[in-house]
Design brief:
With 420 residues, the protein is of the alpha/beta class. Helix content is 30%, strand content 15%. The strands form 4 sheets. A 5-stranded mixed sheet has the order 2-1-3-4-7, with no helix packed on it.
């Protein structure tokens, strides 16, 4: 299967056994000559050539349709996304997750958007440089932290704290620990998350919510590797790699004095901008595979319709929403059952907001019709069809009378191609 089909000006036929110059899709669900794709300037249209399993644009079966940027195109069981500009950047990317990732510890990197992120992380992961991961809520920032930790070869554990998930008054003791008797209820020493990450990685999610009174202590950890548990008389030395993440505008927080400028300068040793899921649909299969493994159903099979529904959704809540959808699907499908659209919530079975318009039928004016085939194309089509002129009319989407005129024009006898 080709990872990318570059559409040049003109016409291209896709199928299991297309004519010369076509694109081969070696799947039993794909007809010999399945679909013609025609490009003229910035307009691209698809035409079903009478295929057995049809051509689908954004989930709607079509005879002919114009493609818009971001449209999903299904040809049998082959799935494509139409990219109007920069398609060559996708060479080497596949929606089925096959192929190498630039970062062996990152199962979610497949397409150009995420590949750039992880290519930069290859040397960074093995250094001690703090990393700041920026992205919308739910984009999978914790997966980046896990990938960095796995590639760092640090022997200690990865420990995480969501700074927005606990009361501000508890952040310091959770992070740096406390001594027995430090406050009411402190009946025994607690080492804290930082010490638990000794020799490993500390991941601080939503670091923009770190209380101002705790920020100097994090700065000291970054500058001198020292921590002072609540109630302790002296500091202790720890060895941790710090990875932070947030969806907040950190520079705005610094300008408003809610986040220390010196701490911000320290945590942004290397900044990762993680694209939202809607901007990296090419990562979907690898991401689904990783999340199913995390759920405990790595062996689950997915129907093509199930995956196309996932690709078609805009995912406003990103990877977190995808995880919830998969967990629900797994709960509804007994082990051994193929995950199908019946296991998806209703909102994934209707067009996303960005897809509100109906599929645009391809125009049928003379200029947009497929070009007249060459004599060699006519001969090849006759050879493949056994001299069946009706089949040529279907392939080239013209009347049989016109096909006969073309054959006569080029002195081609269809009967010489017929087999007994």
């Amino acid at each position: 299967m080709p990872s990318v089909v570059i559409l040049e000006e003109g016409t291209c036929v896709l199928g299991r056994d297309p004519p010369p110059g076509g694109v081969t899709l070696p799947l039993t669900s794909v007809s010999r000559v399945h679909v013609r794709v025609h490009r003229k300037a910035d307009r691209v249209s698809v035409h079903d050539l009478g295929s057995r399993n049809g051509v689908f644009v954004r989930g709607e079966r079509v005879d002919a349709a114009e493609l818009r940027p971001g449209d999903d195109l299904r040809i049998g069981d082959a799935a494509f996304i139409f990219v109007a500009d920069g398609a060559r950047a996708f060479v080497g990317s596949r929606f089925d997750g096959v192929g190498e990732t630039p970062f062996a510890h990152a199962p979610i990197a497949c397409g150009p958007a995420s590949r750039r992120v992880f290519e930069e992380l290859v040397p960074i992961a093995r250094s001690e440089i703090p990393v700041l991961v920026l992205g919308e809520t739910g984009t999978g920032k914790e997966l980046v932290a896990e990938a960095i930790h796995s590639a760092s070869r640090r022997s200690g554990a990865l420990r995480a704290l969501n700074c927005a998930a606990i009361a501000p008054t508890l952040v310091e003791s959770e992070l740096f620990g406390f001594k027995k008797g430090a406050f009411t209820g402190a009946e025994r020493d607690n080492p804290g998350i930082v010490k638990a990450a000794h020799g490993g990685t500390l991941f601080l999610d939503e670091v923009g919510d770190l209380p101002p009174e705790v920020q100097p202590k994090l700065l000291r950890l970054l500058e001198s590797h020292e921590v002072a548990p609540v109630g302790a008389a002296r500091t202790e030395i720890v060895d941790v790699r710090v990875v932070c993440a947030t969806h907040a505008d950190m520079e705005a927080l610094v300008r408003s004095k809610r986040f220390r400028a010196d701490l911000y300068a320290r945590i942004r040793g290397h900044v990762v901008h993680l694209p939202p899921l809607r901007a990296r649909k090419e990562d979907m299969v690898r991401l689904v595979t990783a999340l199913l493994h995390r759920i405990g159903r790595a062996e689950a099979e997915l129907s093509v319709a199930f995956m196309m529904a996932l690709l078609r959704h805009d995912w406003p809540f990103n990877v977190r929403e995808l995880f919830s959808v998969l967990r629900r699907a797994v709960a509804l499908a007994p082990p051994g059952t193929v995950l199908d659209v019946a296991h998806l919530p209703d909102e994934l079975l209707v067009p996303a907001a960005s897809e509100g318009a109906k599929v645009t039928p391809a125009t049928t004016d003379g200029e947009d019709k497929p070009p007249i085939p060459s004599p060699d194309e006519l001969r090849e089509a006759l050879r493949r069809s056994g001299g069946n002129v009706a089949e040529l009319a279907r392939i080239f989407r013209r009347d049989r009378s016109l096909i006969h005129r073309w054959l006569k024009l080029h002195d081609i006898d269809p009967s010489s191609y017929r087999t007994e």
